Amino acid sequence: MRSLKLLLFLTPIFLLAFSSSAQEYDFFYFVQQWPRSFCNTNQGCCYPTYGKPPSDFGIHGLWPNYNNSSYPTYCDPNNTFDINEVQGLVFSLRAKWPSLKCPRSDSSRFWQLQWMKHGTCSVLSQSDYFSAALQLKAVTNILQCLQLAGIWPDDRRYTTLTSVVSAIQNCVGHTIYVQCNRDIRGRHQLYQVYICVNQTGTGLIDCPVFPTRTCPSSFRFPKF
Ligand SMILES: *[C@@H]1O[C@H](CO)[C@@H](O)[C@H](O)[C@H]1NC(C)=O
Ligand SMILES: *[C@@H]1O[C@H](CO)[C@@H](O)[C@H](O)[C@H]1NC(C)=O
Ligand SMILES: *[C@@H]1O[C@H](CO)[C@@H](O)[C@H](O)[C@H]1NC(C)=O
Ligand SMILES: *[C@@H]1O[C@H](CO)[C@@H](O)[C@H](O)[C@H]1NC(C)=O
């Protein structure tokens, strides 16, 4: 009982401390995922209630990160996700930021999680955060970058890490990071692409640091 009282007493101070530190990140990772590689794994996937997503990379998130590789999360529990704040963006979000998690949903829980876990640590308002992500998606057309370099989703051929990385880097003009996972048969495949963005979410930058897990020298890029 006493500790509960203490907890209640401390909570507002705690939250204040968190929200005041919310802006001290160094850059964003803008992460896009290849839907087929999310789906053909042990965990499987479910398409949204409004239909199968486009055959394109989808947004996973826009994540504040520190130069030292660590990152802040859940910076302001009071700044709850409000779908009304992004009402004008829902049509685009459904297509560009679809949830593939089961059970199938209208994707709003995915946006909510991304906002609470990552968005609240940024300097952006909800509408600015989701607009920034959509804008970044529009200026970084990864699928087109790959296709311009002759790399297409293909269920039989393997592609190489060097060709994928250089195709995307030549196209976006900055260093990027490619992440693989394994399909249900254990084969490595292209899963996510990380592009780095400055603190305001508006300018692409070279990545100050890369996550650790990377791809083998060749892997699949399966059709979706
Ligand atoms: C990384 O940097 C941030 C911000 O400067 C700091 O709060 C955090 O403790 C650092 N983390 C590590 C693992 O050094
Ligand atoms: C968070 O919400 C609680 C409950 O509504 C409120 O008492 C508290 O003052 C809020 N804290 C901040 C930092 O806004
Ligand atoms: C981010 O990039 C944009 C576009 O290049 C630029 O206008 C803005 O000043 C940059 N912001 C920061 C904080 O670097
Ligand atoms: C983080 O790294 C970027 C690029 O390497 C650098 O411009 C920036 O000053 C660094 N920020 C801090 C707080 O060290």
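^ 2-acetamido-2-deoxy-beta-D-glucopyranose complex. The first helix runs from residue 2 to 20. The chain has one domain: 34-220.
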